[in-house]
Design goal:
173 residues, Muramoyl-pentapeptide Carboxypeptidase, domain 2, 18% strand
Length: 173
């Protein structure tokens, strides 16, 4: 699944994305499922209207909106099943132009940053008790991501490989 990189690389990417994304925390793919759509980012969804990332769908929606805002690419939530599965699809990522211009088409999925991000989104959504407003310290993140793995990520489609989209599937172990 991880090829030449180890799971520690994916965990490190997860930690980095978690730090970047949650420092900015204030899409579901299906607009009809959202009761409160954002004005600046119409893919943003605060489904329970509380402006707190307490519901896992809110956390994942906030994370994808922030990733888009930071220029990481266009990431969408394709599927989410609480405590079981998250599918993120990307129509663009910042990794693709560099890789393809330098190496051409990849033989296997290589979107390591997005893999780490998708894993981080699931951990942040399912493991953090946001309504308790935890202190988001470096030690908190290290403990959160160094604990026993709860999820695995697999990239099933990859823009670098020539697929029309990148797709990342995070599943509970």
């Amino acid at each position: 699944m991880f090829g030449m990189i180890g799971s520690s690389t994916i965990v490190a990417a997860s930690l980095g994305v978690a730090l970047a994304v949650t420092t900015a925390l204030p899409d579901t793919a299906r607009a009809q499922d959202c009761r409160s759509r954002g004005q600046l980012d119409t893919l943003y969804c605060d489904d329970n209207l509380d402006l707190v990332a307490g519901v896992p769908t809110d956390v994942i929606s906030f994370c994808t909106a922030i990733a888009r805002g930071l220029g990481f690419g266009h990431w969408l939530i394709s599927d989410y099943q609480p405590h079981k599965r998250l599918v993120i699809q990307c129509t663009s990522t910042y990794e693709v132009p560099f890789y393809r211009s330098r190496y051409g088409l990849a033989k296997k999925p290589r979107s390591y940053f997005v893999q780490g991000a998708a894993l981080a989104f699931m951990v942040l959504a399912e493991s953090v008790k946001w309504t308790e407003r935890p202190q988001l310290t470096n030690n908190y993140y290290v403990e959160l991501f160094r604990s026993k793995p709860r999820y695995r990520v697999e990239q099933t489609k990859c823009l670098m490989r020539g697929d029309a989209i990148s797709e990342l599937v995070v599943e509970a172990l």
